Amino acid sequence: MTNVLTIEQLSYKHNLKTILENVDLTLETGKIVGLLGENGAGKTTLMRLITGSAKGSGTITVCGDRAVAHQKSNVSFTEQLKGFRANTKIDRIVDFYRAVYPDFNGQRFEELVTFLQIDTSLRLGALSKGMKEKVVIALTLARQTHLYLLDEPFSGIDSMSRKRIISSIIKWKPDDATMIISDHYVSEIAPILDEIVVVKDHTIYTHRQSDEIREEFGLGIEAYYESLYEGGVNHD
Q1: CA 161 to CA 144: how far, in whole Å?
Q2: Could you give the strand order of the β-sheet that contains 3-14, starting from the edge strand earlier in sequence?
Q3: Strand order of the sheet with strand 203-209?
Q4: What's the whole-model pTM score?
Q5: How many CA atoms lie within 13 A of 180 on its CB side?
Q6: pLDDT, tens digit (0-9, with 9 covering 90-100), for 146-172
Q7: CB 182 within 8 A of CB 199
């Protein structure tokens, strides 16, 4: 297996406050990885650093290259639609994605639109929070790239739709791509995770394979994750 992502000695401060410190992480191609941690642990910041939209010290290598332009072209991130006005129609946003991202697959997007039941003629201002998140998911997964970053993608989506989307994630992820999902619905995403990465105390507290957790500790992903905060499991 080749590595899609290598992070070495990454640190990041904001307003003199340490957010991340001495982060080391290597992810192989083809995995679905859960990025877990409490609110404010630095998960979103880590994703922004990986995309190149934030700059810290240390090195980030995506698909063998450290150039920021390379990061942006090889990473698809669930960026919120804050840059678009409320009266912008979804199909105009799609046109923007087609123009900016050469790897945007229109046919894949249409399949996702059908699956997620999105009306692309609507304007952003007419969408519920859950529907906006579905649009973001469709835009993100429609790109044909090597690394997908899904940052709290399901928080506004109703339970039934959320479970349906999560169970279908494997269908939308290319075999040679890796997907990182940061989400508080740990029990719901656990069945599709190959590995988990826990951000705690400003760094990568632990990085383990899901099967290893079940075999070594006899715990499910959620129980293991909770135990890290209760002091019941030695992560080393």
Answers
A1: 24
A2: 17-28, 3-14, 57-62
A3: 75-77, 147-151, 178-182, 32-36, 195-200, 203-209
A4: 0.94
A5: 28
A6: 999 999 999 899 999 999 999 999 999
A7: no
